[in-house]
Amino acid sequence: MVPKKHAEEHYTSTHAPVCCSLCNEMMAPESLALHKGEKCPQRIATCEYCEFPLPAIDLSKHQEVCGNRTELCHLCNRYIRLRERIAHEVSCNGVPNTTAETSRATREAERDRAPRRRPPPATSPHEDFYSP
């Protein structure tokens, strides 16, 4: 029991809501450590792909972009997205590609396989409406 004359001081130092220094959210003092370590949107988190430290609230968007970067697999000589690297390392058979594939080369190969489009007409069907 706390003596009545010390009750207010006890409440202030032990039970009064505290403010997170990172995000200014008010909470019970016993929640502060967990909040700062795991839940605070402003806590510093590290990107799993580049190890760049940034606020946790920005981590998902950053990793979405960062995980799309590619690195060359030295076993098969293919460019692999960072987000797919672990799965690739498990399944890579180590058979080297004869040429390193780039996203540009892949797009060009896909474009060459796609059916050709008709060229656009020489005149626009709306041209008659706008001629002086």
From TrEMBL:
It comes from the Eukaryota. Residues 104-113 have a biased composition (Basic and acidic residues). Coiled coil: none annotated. GO terms for cellular component: mitochondrion. Residues 91-132 are annotated as: Disordered. InterPro entries: Innate_Immune_Apopt_Reg (IPR051986), Znf_RING/FYVE/PHD (IPR013083). Signal peptide: none annotated. This is TRAF-type domain-containing protein. It comes from Centaurea solstitialis.
